[in-house]
Hints:
mainly alpha, about 120 residues
Amino acid sequence: MNLDPLRQSLAERVVLTIIIVVVVIILLGLVGWATGRWEASAEQMYTPGPYEDRLLDLEKEAMAEGFKQHMIKLFQVWVTDAYQPGLPPKAVKGAANARDAYTRAMEAIEAREHRMRKQ
C-alpha cells in the first residue's frame, strides 16, 4: 500500500481511513477500560436533590402514560393498516417490547427509590 496520498487509489484511501478509524476506536476503548470509566454508570453521576420524591412520582407517571400511548398507537396502526382479524405479529411484538421496556424502566426507578430510602 502506497502511503503517498497523491499516488493512492480511491480504494487504498478508503481502506487506510477504515484502518485508522478502527485503531482510534480501539485505543479509546482501551483508555476507557484502563481508567475504570468503562463501568461508570449514569446512576453514579446523578446527585439526588430536594425534589427527588416528586421526580420519582413523575417518572412513574411518565412510564405509565408512555406505555398507554404506545399501546394505543399499536392498536390504531393494527386497525387502520390493512385490518385482519386475529393477532397481528407486528402488534404482538410491539406490545411485548413495550411491556419489557416498561418493566425495565420501573425496576430502575424502584431500585433508585430503594437506594434513596436507605440513605
